[in-house]
UniProtKB/TrEMBL annotation, chain A:
Belongs to the binding-protein-dependent transport system permease family. CysTW subfamily. Its main location: membrane. GO terms for cellular component: plasma membrane. It comes from the Bacteria. This is Phosphate transport system permease protein. It comes from Desulfofundulus thermosubterraneus DSM 16057. One of its GO terms (molecular function) is phosphate transmembrane transporter activity. InterPro entries: MetI-like, MetI-like_sf, Phosphate_PstC, Phosphate_Transport_Permease. Part of the binding-protein-dependent transport system for phosphate; probably responsible for the translocation of the substrate across the membrane.
UniProtKB/TrEMBL annotation, chain B:
It comes from Desulfofundulus thermosubterraneus DSM 16057. Residues 62-280 form the ABC transmembrane type-1 domain. The keyword DNA repair does not apply. This is Phosphate transport system permease protein PstA. GO terms for biological process: phosphate ion transmembrane transport. The keyword Chaperone does not apply. The chain crosses the membrane at residues 12-34, 66-87, 99-123, 129-149, 181-202, 266-284. Keywords: Cell membrane, Membrane, Transmembrane, Transmembrane helix, Transport. InterPro entries: MetI-like, MetI-like_sf, Phosphate_PstA. Belongs to the binding-protein-dependent transport system permease family. CysTW subfamily. It is found in: Cell membrane. SUPFAM superfamilies: MetI-like. One of its GO terms (cellular component) is plasma membrane. One of its GO terms (molecular function) is phosphate transmembrane transporter activity.
């Protein structure tokens, strides 16, 4: 258009073509600023992770470096007397009971939840895709959105009295703990399993059916084994969530520092000990440091779970 | 057992599994709403809680939850969007990108109580703010940030590459292309994802016990000066949220009507989360329709 525009001598002063170099410079500058801002935001994520490891690590290791507790004693002793006076033998912070409690409820939760989740995931992908998409998908999203405190509260007000009245014991128990957890981790395991089943090439299923397999044989012998690495990832993610859950478990597990002998016995977990005692102990005291060390165990376990997933996924790709 | 019978039985098993999940959800929602709805009235939603006698409400807790959510989203949404832009547009396949992805994974799977401990150490003690809304918002940002990064990266990647190529071919820089072309088309995904993330933040409690605190000062809702200690808007005051309130009254309250308050609070929490879910779907669809003019 501006070819037809012939500026007179006066117009030249009032109208100037934008300087091409100037625009270029401004564009480059904007690009540089934008790119830097984006990079800084991404770098912040790394910084955050590193500082979490550093600070939780340094606080958690104080039990061993400042208070001189042996690592083996902390991990493998059940003697937990964080405020015992010296004349009675001095304090001891063996947290094996807490570690066992956490492992027990989360493993039980996964044992219940994983088979059901895989069944539901297969249902959504293979048996009734339309129905699964319209009804189950939103249902699972809602289940995932229910806050963990609400799970804990329903466990406390519905499940605990039910167990007390019909199965015996106080109601606050390992049983209540792992049932609540197994429901909480359902949506995690289902959605990751569904994704991995959906990602399978359709030819495999078609080939199996063409060879005369029934749908069940196809699912059992072709689809589930093929999606193995995705399904394991899903289960490990569920386990990680169960292991790290704090309030829902704390509300129903009874929080007594004993190793349970039956499913109806109460016990305690790492997370519930931290939840209850962190506010009442003095920063830097042995008791407080022991709680930070438990936090460090939780951190370590969550990284361990990630590593397991990485190895599983890589193994799945090589095959 | 022949193969056909096994197939029949397996199909029944799959249907039963699906029905079980639906039954669990129906039981949960039914139980909470059945007990909670009759507690909820205007008084319950607006009055402050009681410490010893019955009849308290959860007004300040509801306000705190929403205010904390707002603060958290103000901090985490821009950061998450920028980091998502970096990963989707600028990141090359290299060691740096690998570290960023590993960090996001690590943050995603971090137990929220550990985030709470970190928040207690850094945002409460080191900054000297004490238990405060700001500390809580920063702790929630740690939880929400990886989710926001993933949401924005995915929505940006789902925009057809022709749009991007056309814009670049017209001489726009990558940043201009991002802001003027890609982000507007990625908007439905971004909004839907952000609202669902907001639902998660709204119900979070473990990370807040030792960051935003378990108490709420007496608030004067006519005092809007954000620096006044009794102002609800003051970001440096302690603030117990609704989710934390449910936990706290069940573990240490002296009021005789714990059950009533907890039922009502749980129902409010669930209703808000459901509302977020519905909103996310509706808004996402609406924006999508407006953009594609269908």
């Amino acid at each position: 258009m501006h070819k037809e525009f012939s500026p007179g001598p006066d117009a030249e002063k009032s109208f100037r073509f934008p300087d091409k170099g100037n625009i270029q410079r401004r564009k480059r500058c904007g690009e540089f600023l934008g790119r830097s801002a984006a990079f800084l935001a991404a770098a912040l994520v790394v910084l955050l992770t590193v500082s979490i490891i550093y600070f939780i690590g340094s606080k958690g290791l104080a039990t061993f470096t400042v208070h001189g507790v042996r690592v083996t004693e902390f991990l493998f002793s059940t003697q937990w007397w964080p405020d015992r006076p010296l004349e009675e033998g001095g304090p001891a912070v063996g947290s094996l009971t807490f570690i066992l409690g956490s492992l027990l409820v989360s493993l039980l939760a996964v044992t219940v939840s994983a088979p059901l989740s895989v069944v539901v995931a297969v249902f959504m992908v293979e048996i009734a895709p339309v129905w699964g998409q319209r009804v189950l998908q939103p249902a699972i999203e809602i289940l995932a959105g229910i806050p963990s405190v609400v799970y804990g509260y329903v466990g406390l007000s519905l499940l605990v009295p039910f167990i007390r009245n019909y199965l015996g014991g106080e109601g606050f128990s390992v049983l209540a703990g792992f049932i609540v957890l197994s429901i909480m981790i359902l949506p995690t395991i289902i959605s990751v399993s569904t994704d991995s089943l959906r990602a399978l090439p359709p030819q495999w299923k078609e080939a199996a059916l063409a060879l005369g397999s029934t749908r069940w044989q196809t699912i059992r012998l072709v689809l589930v084994p093929a999606a193995r690495s995705g399904l394991i990832t899903a289960v490990v993610l569920g386990l990680a969530r169960a292991f790290g859950e704090a309030l829902a478990v704390q509300m129903v597990i009874g929080n007594t520092r004993t190793i349970p002998h039956s499913l109806l016995d109460p016990t305690i977990t790492l997370t519930s000990a931290i939840t209850m005692d962190m506010g009442y102990t003095i920063m830097g005291s042995l008791w407080n440091s022991a709680l930070w060390s438990m936090g460090l165990i939780l951190l370590f376990m969550s990284f361990l779970f990630i590593m397991v997933i990485r190895v599983v996924v890589r193994g799945g790709m090589v095959r | 057992m022949n193969a056909r019978l096994a197939d029949r039985l397996a199909t029944i098993m799959f249907w039963m599994g699906a029905a079980a999940v639906l039954a669990i959800l129906a039981l949960l929602l039914g139980y909470i709403l059945w007990h909670g709805i009759r507690v909820i009235d205007w008084r319950f939603l607006t009055t402050p809680p009681q410490t010893i006698i019955a009849g308290g409400g959860v007004g300040p807790q509801i306000f705190n939850s929403f205010y904390l959510l707002l603060l958290t989203m103000l901090i985490s949404a821009p950061l998450g969007l920028l980091a998502g832009i970096y990963l989707a547009e600028y990141a090359s396949r290299g060691r740096v990108t690998e570290y960023i992805r590993l960090s996001i994974e690590a943050l995603t799977s971090l137990p929220s109580i550990v985030v709470g401990l970190f928040g207690l150490l850094i945002f409460v003690n080191m900054t000297g703010w004490g238990y405060s809304l700001m500390s809580g918002a920063l702790a929630l940002t740690v939880i929400n940030l990886p989710l926001m990064v993933r949401i924005s990266e995915e929505s940006i990647r789902s925009v057809p590459s022709e749009l991007r190529e056309a814009s670049l071919a017209l001489g726009a820089t990558r940043w201009e292309t991002m802001w003027r072309v890609i982000l507007p088309s990625a908007l439905p995904g971004l909004v839907t994802g952000a609202i669902i993330a907001a639902g998660r933040v709204f119900g979070e409690a473990a990370a807040l016990l030792y960051t935003a605190g378990m108490s709420s000062p007496i608030l004067n809702f006519s005092d809007l000066n954000p620096w006044s200690p009794t102002s609800p808007l003051n970001p440096f005051r302690p603030a117990e949220t609704l989710a934390v309130h449910i936990w706290k009254i069940n573990s240490e309250a002296l009021i005789p009507d714990v059950r009533r308050v907890a039922d009502g609070s749980a129902a409010v929490l669930i209703l808000v989360v459901l509302l977020f879910n519905i909103c996310a779907r509706w808004l996402g669809r609406r924006i999508y329709r407006r953009l594609t003019a269908t």
